[in-house]
Design goal:
The structure is a single chain. The protein is α/β, with parallel strands linked by helices and about 400 residues long. It has 11 helices and 17 strands. The protein has 2 domains: about 270 residues, SGNH hydrolase (Rossmann fold); about 110 residues. It is about 30% helix and about 20% strand. Strands 8, 9, 10, 13, 14 and 16 form a 6-stranded mixed sheet that branches. Strands 3-2-4-5-6 form a 5-stranded parallel sheet.
Length: about 400
């Protein structure tokens, strides 16, 4: 049975104590060359479960590690912004529901990648902590042994991968934030969510208070194992409990009252990045963008008509906002420039065109402009003009 600590002592020492620290990892402070490819292993946090509109469903595009959603600004997007030649090499091998016992299989999947990644993020342990019962949690010795095995497998097969291990978030905050929310309590109960911690959430009985605190202590013990094992490897960096120490708000939690929301994924990315590896940056001007598509629509009156063209600007990381688009109409006048919004698109509209004399009009893009980006007009699949026919 996991050791228990007197409630008052634990409240004083943990809940209200402030920042926790961890054993230092190996010295990884020197700048590293920017990676050509990256991968992520872990559980549903790295799969960004419940952030795509369906509760419980994976939405890896919103992942803190490898995601392409600019709102999250993942490690992958941050590396792209630094000039890393990593476009499209964001392999998310995490598995929702995974425990530390399953991490070794994920490491074998990392070793099977071609090319093998230069950078790997690891986020594991939430499912070892959040189980159906307190006694169902993974023991601390087993957790350590399972993480050790996974790291041994990875480094034996590919010793040059730079590994970044983030701490397990402070699950106790879920109870603290939502214990007074009836709907959250209903979801926790019906869904059997993290009952080791969240069972009887309104109970003030000593046994339930103590159980919650013991779960939090297990959370801390797991993070200690992550830190100590990581420190034994030359190319492993631990976040020194930065993620665990991050204070969450209600908006950081998804609608299942368990997983990080998009805002929570963004916070996880920001916090972990700030204490992660230092990278030897290169000028980001090599980033390329192109026109991913041109679509048209028309409106008409009795004798005239107008054409509207929507321009979509994209890159290997997805849509790009803030791009100034410039072009020209073959006939008439109208808007010839626009700036893309958060979805990477903007529109231009022609002047009024005569139905009798102008059966069609062509809009041609002449340039895309954004600081630190270049327009690749020859990119495969890129288009630069579209002809619109009167309705």
């Amino acid at each position: 049975m996991f050791r228990r600590v007197p409630t008052i002592a634990l409240l004083a020492a943990l809940v209200f104590s402030g920042v926790l620290s961890a054993p230092a990892s190996a010295d990884t402070t020197l700048p590293l060359p920017l990676p050509n490819t990256m991968a992520a292993v872990g559980d549903s946090i790295t799969q960004a479960a419940s952030t795509g509109g369906t509760l419980g469903a994976d939405a890896p595009e919103n992942s803190w590690s490898t995601g392409t959603n600019s709102t999250v600004n993942s490690h992958y997007l941050r590396l792209l912004a630094l000039g890393a030649p990593i476009s499209g090499q964001n392999n998310n091998l995490s598995v929702s529901g995974a425990k530390a016992a399953g991490l070794n299989d994920q490491m074998w999947n990392v070793l099977a990648l071609e090319p093998q990644p230069d950078y790997l993020t690891v986020q594991i342990g939430g499912n070892d902590l959040c189980t159906d019962t307190f006694d169902g949690m993974t023991s601390v010795p087993n957790f350590r042994a399972q993480f050790q095995t996974a790291m041994d497998t990875l480094t034996s097969g590919s010793p040059n991968i730079n590994v970044y291990v983030t701490s397990i978030p402070d699950a106790y905050q879920l109870w603290s934030l939502f214990k007074g929310n009836w709907w959250a309590r209903f979801v926790w109960s019906v869904g059997g969510v993290c009952q080791s911690l969240l069972a009887s959430p309104t109970s003030t009985q000593a046994v339930d208070v103590q159980r919650r605190l013991d779960v939090r202590l297990r959370n801390i013990d797991y993070n200690t194992q992550l830190a100590e094992v990581c420190a034994a490897f030359a190319k492993c960096r631990f976040d020194n409990n930065a993620v665990f120490n991050t204070q969450l708000t209600k908006s950081d939690i998804a609608g299942d009252y368990f997983h990080p929301s998009i805002a929570g994924q963004a916070k996880l990315s920001s916090v972990s990045w700030s204490v992660g590896y230092a990278w030897a940056t290169t000028p980001p001007a090599t980033q390329s963008m192109w026109i991913g598509g041109l679509t048209s629509s028309t409106t008409a009156s009795r004798n005239s008509w107008t054409a509207t063209v929507r321009i979509a600007v994209t890159s290997g990381a997805g849509p790009i906002s803030g791009v100034a688009v410039v072009g020209a109409w073959s006939k008439g006048t109208g808007a010839t420039s626009c700036t893309t919004g958060t979805d990477g698109t903007c529109t231009v509209k022609s002047s009024s065109l005569s139905k009798k004399s102008i059966p069609s009009v062509t809009f041609t893009v002449s340039g895309l402009t954004k600081t630190d980006w270049t327009y690749d007009s020859t990119h495969t699949g890129s288009v630069s003009s579209i002809t619109v026919t009167k309705p």
